[in-house]
């Protein structure tokens, strides 16, 4: 396809469009020139777009940063050329500060709610054998965990994802972390006949990074997969890399994402109707995944085909060893709540919030 052909096709587009061939910028329209002042024909496409967005031949969604704004980018292959389209900015909402305060207020009230439930517990022990009492208690617990997740996500998505305190980089075994997480989630997924598999070519992968944030990223991806994968399906976590960089990929056999939805999959508050089955959510999960990936020097790219499933690939860079937080690794949880059950609260029903799982 010639430059004139590209111009006839994309020159009038309001969105920024660039054509990539053999890893180099072949063409870009006027909107792309306005958005990326340094773009030029013949330059390495990787200077403008994440490598993961340029790979493969299917439709992929990711994010790019331009002019201090985070934008959604979609890439497809046509006649051997990768076409990258960049859509509207995801500017922080004017009420971001207020919403952050809402998240904090929710956490405070949830603490009081949990405390009152704990104080009530001895008085209902005599009724513990009643099925209704146990069911109502699990519904309450599920509500608490769901609201905790929502308040946490609201607070997280309006932060800058910068490390602080105990969230500083640590040297840890990423393979062991993933293996443990898959083992835990497999127990929860088994009730729906969903298999959860972990694949890694190495027994151990030592990585210097923000483990707590990486776990949050993975749990958000698992939550999405559990919500949109039918009973009897499968979810796979793949890990590869070394002490410099690692790649995480969560794929499922769910319903997939339609092409018209792809441009906004990483946008805030976009709870798309992939599957309307009553699952809760306010559309912050993938925005958080993208934010954490960027804060760790990486990117997140979504690859999906309707009816075939979805895969999200995340690349993360290891922090310099001099940034390592040199104290014994430990889990600090002031709430006493299972982080896995918090992060998966919008993908699981109340039956998983009984003593059998909470303990």
What does this structure look like?
The protein has 359 residues and is an alpha+beta fold. It folds into three domains: 3-89, PAS domain (Beta-Lactamase, 2-Layer Sandwich), CATH 3.30.450; 96-157; 165-327, 2-Layer Sandwich (Heat Shock Protein 90). 36% of the residues lie in helices and 23% in strands. The protein has helices spanning 3-10, 30-35, 51-54, 96-124, 131-157, 174-189, 211-228, 285-295, 339-343, 355-358; strands spanning 16-21, 24-28, 60-66, 69-78, 81-89, 170-173, 195-200, 206-209, 234-241, 245-252, 299-305, 309-317. It has a ten-stranded mixed beta sheet with strand order 2-1-5-4-3-11-12-10-9-7. Strand 4 and strand 5 form a beta hairpin. Helix 4 runs antiparallel to helix 5 (131-157), helix 6 runs parallel beside helix 7 and helix 7 packs antiparallel against helix 8 (285-295). The termini are far apart. Residues 89-94, 162-166, 273-278 and 326-334 have low confidence and may be disordered.
Task: Write a concise synopsis of the structure shown.
This protein is an alpha+beta fold and 359 residues long. It has helices at residues 3-10, 30-35, 51-54, 96-124, 131-157, 174-189, 211-228, 285-295, 339-343, 355-358; strands at 16-21, 24-28, 60-66, 69-78, 81-89, 170-173, 195-200, 206-209, 234-241, 245-252, 299-305, 309-317.
């Amino acid at each position: 396809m010639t430059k004139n052909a590209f111009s006839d096709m994309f020159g009038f587009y309001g969105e920024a469009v660039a054509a990539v061939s053999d890893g180099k910028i072949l063409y870009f329209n006027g909107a792309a020139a306005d958005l990326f002042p340094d773009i030029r024909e013949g330059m390495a496409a990787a200077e403008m777009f994440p490598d993961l967005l340029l790979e493969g031949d299917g439709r992929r969604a990711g994010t790019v940063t331009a002019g201090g704004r985070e934008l959604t980018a979609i890439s497809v292959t046509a006649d051997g050329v990768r076409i990258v389209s960049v859509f509207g900015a995801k500017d922080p909402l004017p009420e971001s500060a207020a919403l952050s305060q809402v998240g904090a207020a929710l956490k405070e009230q949830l603490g009081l709610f949990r405390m009152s439930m704990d104080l009530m517990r001895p008085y209902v022990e005599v009724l513990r054998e009643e099925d209704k009492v146990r069911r109502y208690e699990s519904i309450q617990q599920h509500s608490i965990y769901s609201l905790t997740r929502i308040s946490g996500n609201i607070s997280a998505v309006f932060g800058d994802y910068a490390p602080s305190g105990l969230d500083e980089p640590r040297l840890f075994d990423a393979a062991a972390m993933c293996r443990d997480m898959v083992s835990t989630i497999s127990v929860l997924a088994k009730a729906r006949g969903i298999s959860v598999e972990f694949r890694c070519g190495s027994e151990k992968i030592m990585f210097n990074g923000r483990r707590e944030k990486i776990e949050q990223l993975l749990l958000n991806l698992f939550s999405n997969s559990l919500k949109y994968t039918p009973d009897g399906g499968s979810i796979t976590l793949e890990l590869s890399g070394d002490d410099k960089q690692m790649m995480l990929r969560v794929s499922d056999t769910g319903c997939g994402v339609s092409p018209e939805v792809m441009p906004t999959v990483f946008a805030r508050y976009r709870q798309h109707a992939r599957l309307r089955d009553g699952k809760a959510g306010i559309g912050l999960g993938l925005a958080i995944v993208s934010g954490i990936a960027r804060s760790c020097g990486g990117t997140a790219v979504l690859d999906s085909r309707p009816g075939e499933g979805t895969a999200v690939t995340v690349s993360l860079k290891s922090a310099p060893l001099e940034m390592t937080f040199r104290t014994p690794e430990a889990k600090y949880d002031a709430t006493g709540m299972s982080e896995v059950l918090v992060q998966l609260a919008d993908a699981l029903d109340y039956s998983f919030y009984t003593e059998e799982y909470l303990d």
